[in-house]
UniProtKB/TrEMBL annotation:
It catalyses: adenosine(37) in tRNA + 2 reduced [2Fe-2S]-[ferredoxin] + 2 S-adenosyl-L-methionine = 2-methyladenosine(37) in tRNA + 5'-deoxyadenosine + L-methionine + 2 oxidized [2Fe-2S]-[ferredoxin] + S-adenosyl-L-homocysteine; adenosine(2503) in 23S rRNA + 2 reduced [2Fe-2S]-[ferredoxin] + 2 S-adenosyl-L-methionine = 2-methyladenosine(2503) in 23S rRNA + 5'-deoxyadenosine + L-methionine + 2 oxidized [2Fe-2S]-[ferredoxin] + S-adenosyl-L-homocysteine. HAMAP family: RNA_methyltr_RlmN (MF_01849). Specifically methylates position 2 of adenine 2503 in 23S rRNA and position 2 of adenine 37 in tRNAs. This is Probable dual-specificity RNA methyltransferase RlmN.
Amino acid sequence: MSEPIKTLPLVLEPPRGRGKPPRHLADFSADERKAAAEELGLPAFRVKQVAHHYFARLQRDPEAMTDLPAAQRDAIAQALLPPLLSTVKVQEADQGTTLKTLWRLFDGALVESVLMRYSERATVCVSSQAGCGMACPFCATGQGGLQRNMSTAEIVDQVVDAAAAMAHGRVAGGPGRLSNVVFMGMGEPLANYKAVVGAVRRMTSPAPDGLGMSARNITVSTVGLAPRMRQLADEGVPVTLALSLHAPDDELRDELVPINTRHSVEEAVSAAKHFFDVTGRRVSIEYAMMRDINDQAWRADLLAELLLAHGEGRGWVHVNLIPLNEVPGSRFTRSRDEDMDEFVRRLVSRGISTTIRDTRGDEIDAACGQLAASDA
């Protein structure tokens, strides 16, 4: 590399002093809902009715909850389903099969989610923080800094909205079902650990306690918070773990992913292997391909050696190469096709499962690393 990569200060904790989002049904476990019902002076079955509307019928409009007493309907809904996300802007791409929504949170913070419909599945990419404190220099979100963690319900509400959009035919292709969730939007999910795990539990709990999704169809991404990766392995929720590695050596990764100065490449990969050993779930290694930065053939060899040193690559890990989604004004650019092809060839020749990700929504800045939550 000809010049050092400039990075922003690394922030692990959000700024203090902000108010909390209003309490919402999705913030509570089933047991906590009973306590909430008592606190609100409601019989437990009323809370269960509201949960059925929200999680099973994907309904948030109190007027549609006709099994609630008309005189109490608005008050009950306001107490259990306070508005969390307000739509600022929706953009479409890929003939209407990709929708990016800009949301305003209760305190004015802006976040984005992206719903992508494919022939065999529909995936929503959700945010877990307003902004991001990881300061990766090639990522638009990281350049804006961290504003705050999102609550469990603020995360879940993005998924409920996406599920409703599919069910009600708001995505090109007619009515369908949301099948997958990826925590690859704004923020570092494992830096907001409690809320993210709570959201996963709401998504996977059967209705009316949750959305009844398969944990295997939920992917939690991280830049390598090794202790949290190990903790996630023991949660009993067999999600897919995606490690955003982006470099196989500490010298380069210290610059591309500043958290590496606290949790090295070896620590991150060892924690990923531990996740596989505990859950049996194959880990995805995310690797953004940047021209003349991390895409050299010798780095492909180094990555293969790193992964194979922790076990047979084909068995425990899959490498997902991501053609860099370029950010205006950034000096980081997408790798040449021939360099990506050679990178794949070298990994596959060592027996490591490898693919190049199909990019969606880059023309509306909806692709991985492009979410900046601007309402300009």
